[in-house]
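User: Predict structure, ligand flavin-adenine dinucleotide.
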Amino acid sequence: MSAPSLCWFRQDLRLSDNPALTAAAQEGTVLPFYILEDEEAGTEAMGAASRVWLHHSLTALNQALGNHLRVFVGKATDILPQLIAETGATSLHWNRCYEPWRISRDSQLKDTLQAQGLTVTSHKATLLWEPWEPLKADGTPYKVFTPFYRRGCLQAPAPARPLPVPSDLSLYQGDVGGTTLEALSLLPTTGWDTNLIAGWQMGEAGAHQRLETFLDEGILSYQDGRNIPSQSSVSRLSPHLHFGEISPATCWYAALDRFGFEDKNCDVFLSELGWREFSHALLYYNGTLKTEPLNQKFNAFPWRTDDAHLSAWQKGMTGYPIVDAGMRELYQTGYMHNRVRMIVGSFLVKNLRLPWQEGEAWFWDCLFDADHANNAASWQWIAGCGADAAPYFRVFNPITQAEKFDPDGTYIKTYCPELRDLPAKYIGAPFLAPPFILQGAGITLGRDYPHPIVDAKQSRLDALAAFATLKESA
Ligand SMILES: Cc1cc2nc3c(=O)[nH]c(=O)nc-3n(C[C@H](O)[C@H](O)[C@H](O)COP(=O)(O)OP(=O)(O)OC[C@H]3O[C@@H](n4cnc5c(N)ncnc54)[C@H](O)[C@@H]3O)c2cc1C
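Assistant: Predicted complex:
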């Protein structure tokens, strides 16, 4: 049996537009494999929802590869040398990932294996532009999104066009050990994932279907509709993009070729893909993005500790329906609409004054699209300590946000069904409803739905006062 080229699948669980797979296939027989790397990831090991997604995504990839995906658990630094020794492989391909632990591990691994005579090639597949490509004229990285995207990205050479699925893929048949997908134990034993996965089709086919539906429908109202959580104007491509079931270049060119930059909806959608690039560039240049505020001044911020408030926020029991609907959407579906992510984030770090890292950690565990770069950068943005961040003094009012973005309460009632009979006027703030209205809607506050855990106005003032101490200490 001739030696195969090794193709290491990581965050690129697809056959199309997969440069590592294409390059390996051009060399001859391919051995595709995946390694569950909890040990090496350490504190950045995948959260519970991501593991559920991964299980289904790997299952789909394995099917697409005719059941020839090999899976392993452990350290890549232990597994790869064994795989090379057993197969006699002389070539290894992977697509680049950008988490700090992977970057340093990958570069060490590459040096070691190359020193042993293996040809190791890494490829660009996960981003449109490498983080080190869009640089300011003075050679330093951008800190503000608009020039990063409009100048740094759009004026750089265009991303490569997506590659087709390699034709005549010849897959290695030999036995190389490893384990089964089931043995990875990615699914919970209690069955809480049954409802979670409803409405999603994990895997490459599902990703392409999602993109097609979005291009036929959602994108037509994307610019304004993307702010209305009850509308299906957004793509919901984020978990598919995170796991690499579809490439950003495929999404980029599918939208661009059909609508062009001159179409406002398309332009805004492409710029959201640009935010994804920006977050990855921020992470690349700031390895502690997940834990340390970019604006160091925030190290002195007087955050509170309050387990009861944190728990109420996590459970969607704050007494502010738009916040509670968002947190319940997250827990029930593994997803939360972007507008609502901003509202619940602002509520946590400003009204409750709890550390943004607590929010980051909860999202990490609950989101299907939990992504080191996007999650950390977005939380820093919300907290006001990130790059190009929302100023700390801009506090989203959970009542007016509900009035503006969910005026008839369609979204709130989906996730807070106990409020279904409340008139639209009070849906964003049941505690402001007169007793007879509450009675008519069958709601007793404190029994059917919580009293607000903080006063929105007072907590905003407290947050601003806390922020002022930073200015004084600067
Ligand atoms: C507090 C907070 C935490 C977040 N955590 C994550 C996360 O862990 N993973 C994640 O993918 N996104 C995260 N986001 C960004 C954004 O909310 C999601 O990418 C988006 O809601 C996904 O839905 P969609 O695919 O329908 O987005 P669409 O509006 O259809 O956008 C298309 C794609 O663009 C990218 N994108 C859109 N907005 C952003 C953004 N602000 N930053 C970076 N990329 C963006 C995503 O890949 C998304 O799939 C977070 C935002 C906030 C405010």
